[in-house]
Automatic annotation (TrEMBL):
Biased segments, Polar residues type: 23-37
Keywords of the record: Metal-binding, Repeat, Transcription, Transcription regulation, Zinc, Zinc-finger
Compositional bias annotation for Basic and acidic residues: 1-16
Name by which UniProt lists this protein: Transcription initiation factor IIB
Repeat is among the record's keywords: yes
Keyword Iron-sulfur found: no
GO terms of biological process kind: transcription preinitiation complex assembly
PROSITE patterns membership: TFIIB (PS00782), ZF_TFIIB (PS51134)
Sequence repeat residue intervals: 139-222, 233-314
Gene: tfb
Region Disordered: start-end pairs: 1-38
GO CC annotations, alphabetized: transcription preinitiation complex
Length: 319
């Protein structure tokens, strides 16, 4: 029995040495590389359940909470820093409840003092014109992002782009709303969130022409790498609003891929191209939608859909 035991120990040492060389930890029992942390300071193999290490450092809190109110009461830190606030969230908050740490009401003298402190806190949060500019612009970005329904990451990216534009003095001679809207549109492009210029201008207080002009200027000055918008990004949202099936979406993507390979997409609006592909796919899948219905969802004209539709069906060889 001694020889097999020695052989197993040798094999295990060889596996450990191999994992150290490659930087990937493997399970000594089943040789799996699916090693995860269970959040309690242990490393566990997902395949066989072996606890590989039970003295791993747990960097989480020492307390447990089972709902939001418990988590709020036990937490000893504030909200994380964010680019969407002009002071990045590193500010002082004076509570409006006028109560001390024990929950007792303050005296009238202390209440008036707290009132003055709150007032001065609001005044000194923005120390100069640059911070006031940033405060207004970031609030506009947050308002428009909420109206567009884009995720938090897009707001963060838009805020970073606006901060860069402000540092490069690109705001001079342009409206704050125009630059803020252009930065939000650029963030949507960078994060792969399909929002057309028409949709962004609908929630903005600036005309579409000015947004496009400012966007091109900011993208050029900040050297933002923008790839062309893929029309397939619009297909799921348009098809969902038109209540079309997965079959139509798949057919529309196929039409876009086939026709784009033939060079038809060059110089065309991605929203109009996607709308025409959805219209053609709805006809082919017997889920007919009128050109007016598709045009209203995609915010393009019926003429655009007709022109793109004719080009696509000719390229597909459909009569």
């Amino acid at each position: 029995m001694e020889r097999p035991t020695r052989q197993r120990e040798t094999d295990q040492q060889e596996r450990e040495q191999e994992s150290e060389d490659t930087g990937q930890q493997t399970c000594p029992e089943c040789e799996s590389e699916s090693i995860t942390s269970d959040g309690g300071g242990e490393l566990v193999c997902e395949d066989c359940g072996l606890v590989i290490e039970d003295e791993n450092i747990d960097r989480g809190p020492e307390w447990r909470a089972f709902n939001h109110s418990e988590r709020q009461s036990k937490s000893r830190v504030g909200a994380p820093t964010t680019q969407t606030m002009h002071d990045k969230g590193l500010t002082t908050q004076i509570d409006w409840k006028d109560k001390d740490a024990y929950g007792r009401s303050l005296s009238s003298e202390k209440r008036s003092q707290m009132h003055r402190l709150r007032k001065w806190q609001e005044r000194i949060r923005t120390k100069d014109a640059g911070e006031r500019n940033l405060q207004f612009a970031l609030s506009e970005i947050d308002r428009m992002a909420s109206a567009l329904g884009v995720p938090r990451s897009v707001r963060e990216v838009a805020s970073v782009i606006y901060r860069r534009a402000l540092n490069e003095d690109l705001i001079r001679g342009r409206s704050i709303e125009g630059v803020a809207t252009a930065c939000l549109y650029a963030a949507c492009r960078q994060e792969g969130i399909p929002r057309s210029l028409e949709e962004v201008s609908d929630v903005s207080r600036v005309e579409q022409k000015e947004i496009g002009r400012t966007y091109r200027y900011v993208a050029q000055e900040l050297e933002l790498k923008m790839e062309p918008v893929d029309p397939k990004q619009y297909v799921p949202r348009f098809a969902s609003e038109l209540e079309l099936s997965e079959e139509v979406q798949s057919k529309a993507n196929e039409i876009i891929d086939t026709t784009a390979e033939q060079g038809l997409l060059s110089g065309k609006s991605p929203t109009g191209y996607a709308a025409a592909a959805i219209y053609a796919a709805s006809l082919l899948c017997n889920e007919k939608k009128t050109q007016r219905e598709v045009a209203d969802v995609a915010q393009v004209t019926e003429v655009t859909i007709r022109n793109r539709y004719q080009e696509q069906i000719e390229a597909m060889g459909i009569h």
